[in-house]
Design goal:
Largest sheet of chain A: 6 strands, parallel
Oligomer: homodimer
Largest interface: A-B, 41 and 41 residues
Shape of chain A: globular
Number of helices of chain A: 14
Strand order of the largest sheet of chain A: 1-8-5-4-2-3
Structural class of chain A: alpha/beta
CATH topology of the largest domain in chain A: Dehydroquinate synthase-like, alpha domain
Strand content of chain A: 5-15%
């Protein structure tokens, strides 16, 4: 097991009706900015529940934060925060809204000239403007971690940011919100969370027995509940397990003491930037090729995964590992997630070269758990995903 | 799944050499009281490592906190804290030292006349004097939770206390400390942690699939590493998994969203108070009888546990459940933990009646996950454990 530090101070309020409890978590007298996305919360009743829970606070609103939260839009919210002297933010949405609010949390207290530097210079945020979240779309675990991904359309770029000052003060997870999520988003959420676990697990054995088993537990649970959630998102028990699994998949716990990969995300982000493909689907496109290409370095963990998550108990290590990759693809397909780039765009020729060149231009530190993948490797993996 | 709230802000510093990192976690200029137990840390080198890490701080010491931390001893430490205007405490020890420091954390800021009231009146501590820990004996998870158990010899009583103000600011977990722990304490630690999981798991199914699997993961890991740790406590990989499993067993995570039992602890505490039997061993004495006595209400979880932890996959639910209890006993026996009260004392006659009467006198709220056990039930369970 590797040495690690772990701290996660976010308070979780989980369960039926918990939106009503959020007021007790916000400092009394705070001037609150409520931020949300495209307005679906006004259709499904969550907006009304939150406004009702905020009764007694001075509340301003900022709607319209898009998927892959956009820098230019966030700058408009930043202006409101500064002009209105906001004390507390409440993100009501999925990972995009929450990630956007994390950028704002950092930018609101940033004393440099240009908030873009937070992203471009990878500045670690030690203290941010306090915020809470009401999760409406389980997937990214942004509700219980301190990281964010911000996009800038102008330059077709996605940047990650983070720091110990960016944990939400609290997050409300009411599984009842799952009932109104469209099937496509449910499949995306499950795929995203499942791949988060894979990125922290599918490396090489390091003797972290408990972390391995907890990672497998999350994947087993997602596999068990996926068909139920997609068939009937109002199935509360399935929704609750889906929601908690997504949070646990990336709240920091399972990555502690183990090597992590994250190459699938690095390549996937480029597909979203180039083609606007849903984040989760880019992961499903890249992951199988990535594991096939890096088979030798990952086969022991692939075989363990095949055994414990998919109950593939016969065959050699190589055979089990191969079957594990196939089972992963089948799982994505079972949710109508296509795992080929060509299914999403006719323009895929040359994509591999474009992406590998982008990585080269940005300065190359190596990808994967051994930091050993070169731009040439990336090119081959993306090509295998066509 | 039941509704829940979860927050655990303790920072964990895990791994080889992490004791050297603790100074960065203590406010600079703080006047520190270092507290420890019987002095074994002076033999095994931990004392020197901690003193060296605290170089530059004003440090006072208070040694001699006994196992089952004793109220009268703690009052002496409280006097030091107040007279010397201590800003920060550092607990160096196992669960007893850490629990004792939690009482002190609460008592140092308590504004009532008598600190005993914190225990007797079950006062919830919202803010305590800040403290960190260096764990020397994995078992109780006190290093990452906000609860404590305090004893008072005078009245033969053990009281629990806690509150959100009693999380350690940080805890250092260096698995190298395991190498110098005597075999008896190792067996106790494994048994204690394993039973902590059982108390939060062995109830009835509530559809919390992920919590069940994480609980099983901890038990599987303890079962896997137990023989290695006991055979060779300097096996770093085994020690690291043992240490992290103990912490995860009672840091609050697996009890969220599920019913919990804790009747084994309630009865076990009485055996320690009456006979001075090691805490962990009292749990091993009570648990099998408790599960046999409450078989019908627990058999579904017992069977799931038998299947997933012990790989008992054939037979009816009743047969698997029965085999699961037997496997638990065998596990304890494999570590030379006797599961019969008569092995520890010749004075066991009448114990069941004494304990059931004590419960009655204190006012009875019912024990177990259904709060349905009566003093008469307790009497029968303790008798079955003779």
């Amino acid at each position: 097991m590797l040495n690690f530090e772990f701290r996660n101070p976010t308070k979780i309020l989980f369960g039926k009706g918990q939106i009503a409890s959020l007021a007790k978590e916000i400092p009394s007298g705070a001037k609150v900015l409520m931020l949300y996305g495209g307005g679906s919360i006004k259709q499904n009743g969550i907006y009304d529940q939150v406004r009702s829970a905020l009764d007694g606070f001075t509340v301003l609103e900022f709607g319209g934060i898009p998927a892959n939260p956009e820098y230019e839009v966030l700058l408009k919210a930043l202006k409101v925060i500064k002009e209105e002297k906001i004390d507390f933010m409440l993100a009501v949405g999925g990972g995009s809204v929450i990630d956007g609010v994390k950028f704002l949390s950092s930018a609101a207290l940033y004393d440099g000239d240009n908030p873009w530097d937070i992203l471009a210079q990878r500045i670690v945020t030690k203290v941010g403007l306090p915020f809470g979240t009401v999760l409406t779309l389980p997937a990214t675990a942004s509700e219980m971690n301190s990281g964010a991904v911000i996009s800038r359309h102008e330059t077709q770029e996605k940047f990650t940011m983070g720091g110990p000052g960016l944990f939400p003060q609290f997050s409300v997870l009411d599984p009842q919100v799952v009932a109104s999520i469209p099937k496509r988003q449910l499949a995306n959420g499950i795929t995203d969370a499942f791949t988060h676990v894979l990125e922290q697990y599918m490396t090489y054995p390091i003797g972290a027995l408990l972390q391995d088993r907890i990672a497998e537990s999350i994947m087993q649970t997602l596999v068990e509940v996926a068909p139920k959630v997609i068939k009937d998102p109002s199935d509360y028990e399935a929704a609750a397990n889906f929601m908690w699994s997504c949070t646990m998949a990336l709240n920091g716990l399972i990555q502690k003491g183990v090597p992590t990969d994250w190459a699938v995300h690095a390549m996937g982000h480029e597909l979203t930037a180039l083609f606007g493909i849903d984040h989760a689907r880019t992961l499903a496109i890249i992951a199988p090729s990535h594991y096939r290409y890096n088979f030798d370095g990952k086969k022991e963990k692939l075989a363990q995964y095949a055994e414990r998550v998919w109950n593939i108990t016969t065959g050699t290590t190589d055979e089990k590992a191969t079957a594990g990759i196939k089972a992963t693809e089948d799982f994505f397909h079972s949710m109508d997630i296509n795992t080929r780039l060509s299914a999403y765009t006719g323009e895929f020729k040359g994509t591999a070269q474009i992406i590998s060149q982008k990585f080269t231009e940005r300065g190359w530190n190596g990808l994967g758990e051994r930091k050993a993948l070169t731009p040439a490797d990336v090119e081959k993996i993306v090509e295998m995903s066509y």
